[in-house]
Structures are given as C-alpha cells and as structure tokens.
Design a protein that fits this description.
RepB_N, disordered N terminus, 3 domains, DNA binding, single chain, elongated, Plasmid_RepB, six-stranded mixed beta sheet, alpha+beta, Arc Repressor Mutant, subunit A, ParB_N, three-stranded antiparallel beta sheet, 44% helix, 334 residues
C-alpha cells in the first residue's frame, strides 16, 4: 500500500483521483480556531509535501474545520505515550534545526489530537522535534488537530517515521517494542511500522536483546544497522553485569557522538582472549628426596630447569652431554 493510500485509510476518507484541485497555494487562507489554539493564515509553499498536507489533500467533501492549521502553545502538547525517538543529548543537528525554524519558520505542521485524559491539552502524533524547536524559540507551534483513535495515532506516528530518513534502526526497533509492551494489536503495529511480519520479528528480536540502559547510553546510533546491533546483543549475553555497567559508566563516552558511543561499548564488551594456561611443572628428586630439577611440558615442547643450588654444576654437565644423549636416543629407536 502506498504512503498516500495508507494515510487516506487512517483518516477514513476514500482516495479520489478526480478530487478537485486545491486552492492556489499562494493565496492565504484564514482557518477556524480550535479550543486552546490560535488560528493563523496559512500560506503553504509547494515544497511542503508533509503527511499533514497529504491527508488534507485526500479529504473530499466540504471543508473540515479540524483539518485547518492552527497555532498552539507548545507547552500544551504532550508527546505520544509510545515513544519512537531515542533521546540523544549530543544531537548537534537539533540546534541547527532550531535555527532553521527560527530563520525560515515552520513549513510543515505537526499532527495532534485533543488529549484523551487532560482537558485543554494535546497529544502529538508526529512533530515532536518541531514542537521542541518551537518551545526553544518561544513561539507557537503550527499544527493540525484531528480526532484520532489510539490506533490511528500510532499508525500516523509510524507513517511519519517511514517518511523520515533519519530514524535509525534501533529507533524503529524501539518503537516496535514500545507498542508491543503497551499491548497494541500486532496488526496495528504492522501498519504503524509499514513492514511485514518477518521484518517486525527482526526488529523485536533486536530490541528485546538490548537492555534499555544500553540503548539510553548509546542513543539513536544513526549509522548502525541490524548486523552490528546483533553483534552487540551477543556480547551482552556473554558479559557479566559488572562488565556491562563499567562499559556504560566509562568516562571515555563523554563527548562522543552516538555512533562513537556504540563503537566504544561494543569494543568494551569484546571477549578478551584467554591467557594460555601455564604448564604445570613436575618436580624431579634424587634418591635422597632432594629436588634438583623441574620439568614443564607444553604443546610447544619440554623444558628442564636444573636447581643449581641443589646440585652445583649439574646443569653444565647435562648441557654438555646433550649430543651424546640425542645420539643414544636415536640409536634406541633403531
């Protein structure tokens, strides 16, 4: 199913190929107000092909006042109860994102619903970073307010994820696991993720094998794919708890990017090569019970150490007789 068809299905409206053309994008439109929000004229650039714009374009019939873009105090907007993003305090891209919105404005509205349990508040389906940016700047966030069921909100949240190239593998896995833990039906998770059952099983397997503390310490790791996360999962399974805790608390993680933190923790949990077992020495004693030599056997050979204090000069005597001894040995073997 295409992205546009999936969104049309969420909104409960058929997708019409013969729908009338939308008004000219250069004409400002005044929108009806929504409780707790301020309506503003919306002038959409043609490049703003957001999920919200696609949904609005797929609507047929009379204009729906709830499909309008309004301005909302970002402090009234709560994130979805099921997180998709993995926080990263070292995300330098967010600071650049804030400056872009400060300079250019917010081109793409977020999607929210009225909060199901807190009057006067809203729950974000998608656009959490845009909401954070608006809060940081101190300006309202532009939003579409829709009546969405819990399932619709998740599918809308997931569909936006599919359109974002910067959502990492572990964030997708994290989103799938959070939905499963919340008791979301498997069919809804599949729609929200836009994947088939085998792919969802892979996401869940990775998310379930990586402790949340490890994900929190690493962050989104945008350049790390499934194979390397599986390698980390294998190392976590074989490492003891103290070693894992030490890797997560290492001062060397400070100042590193999320991908670098992943590499550091992966290396810290690598299985150290086992030191070769030292061969056990055999003691050689004379007829009086005095130890005068030690014999050590290993795969590489045999070592004889003469105790010089016990029998002074015997070591030199033995060394001098070695040619004679090897000849006698060979003769004995025929």
């Amino acid at each position: 199913m295409s992205q546009k068809k999936r969104l049309s299905a969420i909104m409960g409206a058929p997708l019409r190929s013969d729908a009338p053309a939308p008004p000219d994008s250069d004409i400002a439109t005044t929108y009806a107000p929504v409780a707790g929000a301020t309506a503003t004229p919306e002038k959409r650039p043609s490049a703003a092909r957001s999920m919200a714009a696609m949904w609005a374009a797929s609507r047929s019939g009379p204009a729906d006042p709830e499909a309008t873009v309004v301005e909302i105090d970002p402090d009234l907007c709560d994130p979805s109860a099921i997180a998709d993003r993995v926080p990263d305090a070292t995300d330098a891209a967010f600071a650049a994102f804030v400056e872009q919105i400060r300079d250019e404005g917010q081109h793409t509205p977020i999607l929210v619903r009225r909060h199901p349990s807190s009057a006067g508040r809203y729950e974000i389906a998608y656009g959490r970073r845009r909401t954070r940016a608006a809060r940081a700047i101190g300006r309202p966030v532009r939003a579409l307010v829709r009546d969405l069921s819990d399932a619709d909100l998740l599918v809308a949240q997931g569909s936006e994820n599919l359109a974002r190239e910067d959502l990492s593998y572990i964030e997708r896995a994290h989103f799938a696991r959070n939905m499963e833990r919340a008791g979301v039906a498997r069919e809804v998770i599949l729609k929200a993720m836009g994947v088939h059952r085998p792919d969802l099983a892979n996401y869940l397997a990775v998310a379930q094998s990586i402790p949340e503390a490890v994900i929190a310490a690493i962050g989104p790791a945008p350049k790390i794919g499934r194979p390397r996360w599986l390698t980390l999962a294998d190392r976590i399974r074989t490492a003891d708890r103290d070693r894992i805790d030490a890797a997560l608390a290492s001062p060397s993680l400070a100042g590193k990017t999320s991908d670098e933190r992943f590499a550091a923790i992966l290396a810290a949990l690598a299985t150290a090569p086992k030191a070769a077992a030292r061969p056990k020495a055999e003691t050689v004693k004379d007829g009086r019970g005095v130890r005068f030599a030690r014999v050590e056997r290993s795969a590489a050979g045999l070592r004889v150490t003469v105790e010089e204090a016990a029998e002074p000069g015997f070591g030199e005597y033995l060394a001098g007789r070695l040619p004679e001894l090897i000849a006698a040995y060979r003769a004995s073997r025929g």
